[in-house]
Amino acid sequence: xxxxxxxxxxxxxxxxxxxxxxxxxxxxxxxxxxxxxxxxxxxxxxxxxxxxxxxxxxxxxxxxxxxxxxxxxxxxxxxxxxxxxxxxxxxxxxxxxxxxxxxxxxxxxxxxxxxxxxxxxxxxxxxxxxxxxxxxxxxxxxxxxxxxxxxxxxxxxxxxxxxxxxxxxxxxxxxxxxxxxxxxxxxxxxxxxxxxxxxxxxxxxxxxxxxxxxxxxxxxxxxxxxxxxxxxxxxxxxxxxxxxxxxxxxxxxxxxxxxxxxxxxxxxxxxxxxxxxxxxxxxxxxxxxxxxxxxxxxxxxxxxxxxxxxxxxxxxxxxxxxxxxxxxxxxxxxxx
Length: 336
Prior knowledge:
GO biological process, one term: transmembrane transport
Signal peptide: 1-20
Structural class: alpha+beta
GO cellular component, one term: ATP-binding cassette (ABC) transporter complex
CATH superfamily of the largest domain: Periplasmic binding protein-like II
Keywords: Signal
Shape: globular
Number of helices: 13
CATH class of the largest domain: Alpha Beta
Oligomer: single chain
Family: Belongs to the phosphate/phosphite/phosphonate binding protein family.
C-alpha cells in the first residue's frame, strides 16, 4: 500500500477538513479531556485517549496497518520491520501490511481517520499523534536496561571554518520539519543558550527530513543543521555519508527516540496481543544493526517519558492542538 504524494496546498485542505470534522463531538459526555481533541476522552488522567465507552465502537480489523516514522527513506524500514510484522501477525492472528507515508502530517492524519492501526511516530510529532489521532504510545527501541535515546547534534562540514555555533550567524542553516523535536523545536529552546538563536541569527530553512539535512550539509547546500543523532549515526553506519566529513558543534541531553503506538479504539483483546508482541519481540541482527544495537521494544508511558519533550514544545509555544497542528504543518508543507 503506497501513500500518494499530494501538493502542499491540497494536503493542507485535506488536513484542515479532517481535523475540523469531529468538532460536533465536543458535546460528548466526558469528565476530563485535558489537551486531547474533542473526539477523545481522558478520564483516567494518563494524558492519552481512553478506549471508547461504547463497545460497539471497538475496531477489530482483519488487516492491521503498520508504519514507521518517515525520518528517512521509507523503503529502508519496510524491509527492516518485516520480521517484526510477521511476529505481530502471528501474535494477533491478523494480516499485517506496511503503509508507506512520506510526511509526519500524513502519518498522523492516517491514524486519526482510522486507516492506520499501529505506528512508530517521531519524538516531536508524538504529541500531535496522541492529542489529535488517539495514538497510545507503549514502547520505544531499547535494551534490557532502558530505552534508547538520542540527542540533538548540530553538524557542519569538517572542512568548514565553523568552530562554534555562533559562527553560524547569518549562514544557511537547515531545520528538518516544523513538528520535529530535535530538528526544530529543541533547537529553538536550546541553541540560544549557546549563542545562536533561530529566526534571529539565521533564517530557518526546512529540509523536510533529517537525512535530507545531513545530505544537504554534506553537499554544501546548507552550512549547518541540527539533526537527530540516531539518524546521523545510522547514515554513517550504512555508508550513506562518512563521519569524518562532519564536525559536531553541539550535542544536547538525551531525548526518548521514536514512540510506537496503537490506535485508542482497537478492541481491548487485540490491544493486549499487540502490546504483548511489542514487549516480547527481540530484534533480528538486521534490526539491531539498523537501530544502534537496540534489541527490543522497551515499555514506556507518554505521561512520564514524554515529559521533557512536552516541556520543549511548551518552551517554543507549540500547542499539540488542532490549531497548533495546522500552524506547524502549514509551515512544513509550504516550505516543501
